[in-house]
Design goal:
The chain is mainly α. Helices cover 75% and strands 0% of the residues. It is built from 9 helices and no strands.
């Protein structure tokens, strides 16, 4: 199978995820800057989650441009990734409203960790299907950044039960680390 339908479906789901997140931000009751103060944690959690969804969309886009074909396993792995991405609006709202509470902060990290695992699974299945000598396999090689991100998420989940704000900082650090698009696939495809 070609990748067109997989790309179109994934783009649609990701667009809906972003739309749901922004619709969850409630309008303040007042009209001055003081009315915005209680919304600050909600808006900050939205910005962070928007960055994460954007990072996954960007990397998913690059990943699929290196793919010649997909099979049933890849389709299911992609759905697994979209499932975890679809939970981001829920945990975004939860952490936005309860940013100092351990469970919402740990829940946010759990969704980020599972999303990272799902993306790595998708990447692994594509490489396995395309072959170890495929351009994609050469591009992704050893996934240091992805593995290190998972370790940071796991540490942040544990830390959430002691210092929730440290976990939130770690989530932001990982997002900033990934904000620069992964150019490895682009480089291999242009060679």
């Amino acid at each position: 199978m070609k990748t067109n339908r997989l790309e179109a479906f994934s783009d649609g789901v990701i667009a809906i995820i972003i739309t749901i997140m922004v619709l969850e931000i409630k309008v303040p009751h007042g009209t001055d800057l003081a009315a915005l103060r209680p919304l600050l944690p909600v808006v900050l959690s939205y910005v962070l989650s928007f960055l994460y969804v954007g990072i996954y969309w960007n990397n998913h886009h690059h990943l699929l441009h290196a793919v010649q074909r997909v099979n049933g396993k890849i389709l299911w792995a992609n759905l697994y990734l979209l499932f975890w991405l679809s939970l981001i609006p829920f945990v975004t709202r939860w952490i936005g409203e309860h940013h100092e509470a351990s469970l919402p902060v740990a829940g946010y990290g759990t969704v980020l960790l599972m999303t990272a695992i799902a993306y790595n699974l998708l990447e692994h299945l594509i490489v396995r299907d395309q072959g170890r000598d495929s351009p994609l396999a050469r591009a992704v090689g050893h996934e240091f950044k992805g593995r290190m991100s998972a370790v940071i998420y796991l540490a942040a989940i544990i830390l959430a039960f002691m210092l929730a704000w440290v976990s939130e900082v770690l989530y932001a650090v990982v997002a900033l680390w990934w904000i620069v698009p992964d150019r490895r696939i682009e480089r291999i495809l242009t060679e």
